[in-house]
Design brief:
mainly alpha, two-stranded antiparallel ribbon, 9 helices, about 0% strand, disordered C terminus
Length: about 260
C-alpha cells in the first residue's frame, strides 16, 4: 500500500496524512444510521474481538481457580504476574520486532522517520528509550496490572455464592461486553484531559510524553500513578453488576492495545 496516496512527506521524511482523524459515527450528532452500520464491523475487528478472546482464554483456561483468591497466596500473585508479563511481551514484542527491528513496513505511514532506538536522551533510563520503556513496563506497569487483576478476582472470589452467571442475564452481559471499548475510551479521555493539567502533567504525565517517537512498549511506559489510573478502569466492574470475564476484557483492552494504530472508536 502506497502511503503517499493517503498523505505526504516533509523534507525529513516524516509522513503526514491528508485527512485529520474523524469522529466515530457512534458519537456523531445528529445520528447517521448508514455511516454507523458501515462502521460497526471495524468496531469489532480486529483488536476488540482479539482482546475479548484473550480475556476468555484467561478466564476459562489460564487463571487459577477463583477459590484460590479467597485467601492471599503469594504463588497466585506470581502466577498472575508471569502470565500477564509473558503474554504482553509476546504481543508487544511481535510488533516491536516486525516494525522496528525487521522494519518490514519500512517508513510507510510513519509519522517520525527516526526509529525509537535512535532517541538517546537523559530523560530515559540508561539514556535509551527502548530500555526505558521495557523496564518501566516490567517493573512498574506489570506489577500494578497484576495488583488490579488480583484485587478484582479476590472481590469476585468472595461473591461466589451470589455470583451471577453469564447465562442468567445474557442480554445485560452482552450489552455490557459491547460497550467495554466505549467505557475505556470515555475513561481514557477523562483521565488524559486531567493529566494534561499543568501540575499533574509535570508530576505524572510527562514521563509518558518523554517517548515522543513511541513504539509498542511506550504504551505502558508511565509514572506509577498514571498506570494505576489508566488500568484502573477495570475497577468499574466491581462497582456495577458485572462478571470476572468482563473485568478481564476491560483490563485486556486497556493493557494490550499497544501503539499499533487506531482502534476505530
Amino acid at each position: 500500500m502506497d502511503d503517499l496516496a493517503f498523505g505526504s512527506r516533509n523534507k525529513r521524511g516524516d509522513w503526514t496524512p491528508d485527512e485529520s482523524a474523524s469522529t466515530a459515527p457512534l458519537f456523531m450528532f445528529p445520528p447517521r444510521p448508514l455511516a454507523l452500520l458501515k462502521w460497526i464491523p471495524s468496531y469489532f475487528l480486529l483488536f476488540n474481538l482479539l482482546f475479548a478472546a484473550s480475556a476468555y482464554l484467561w478466564w476459562a483456561y489460564l487463571l487459577p481457580d477463583l477459590s484460590r483468591f479467597q485467601d492471599f497466596e503469594l504463588i497466585v500473585v506470581l502466577q498472575l504476574y508471569l502470565l500477564n508479563t509473558f503474554a504482553l511481551m509476546l504481543f508487544y514484542g511481535f510488533f516491536e520486532i516486525r516494525l522496528y527491528v525487521m522494519q518490514v513496513q519500512g517508513q510507510r505511514f510513519k509519522f517520525n522517520v527516526r526509529c525509537p532506538s535512535d532517541n538517546k536522551s537523559d530523560v530515559f533510563w540508561f539514556k535509551s528509550q527502548i530500555i526505558d520503556n521495557v523496564l518501566r513496563t516490567l517493573l512498574i506497569a506489570m506489577p500494578l496490572w497484576t495488583f488490579i487483576q488480583y484485587v478484582i478476582l479476590s472481590f469476585y472470589a468472595h461473591q461466589v455464592p451470589s455470583l451471577p452467571t453469564l447465562i442468567d442475564h445474557p442480554i445485560y452481559f452482552a450489552a455490557l461486553a459491547l460497550i467495554v471499548p466505549v467505557i475505556h475510551e470515555t475513561h481514557f479521555y477523562l483521565i488524559h484531559r486531567g493529566l494534561h493539567w499543568g501540575p499533574f502533567y509535570r508530576l505524572f504525565h510527562s514521563v509518558h510524553h518523554n517517548s515522543v517517537n513511541p513504539s509498542p512498549f511506550s504504551l505502558l511506559s508511565m509514572h506509577p500513578v498514571e498506570v494505576f489510573l489508566y488500568l484502573g478502569v477495570a475497577f468499574l466492574h466491581v462497582i456495577i453488576p458485572s462478571h470476572p470475564l468482563l473485568a478481564l476484557y476491560q483490563l485486556h483492552y486497556a493493557g494490550f492495545r499497544c501503539n499499533t494504530g487506531p482502534y476505530r472508536i
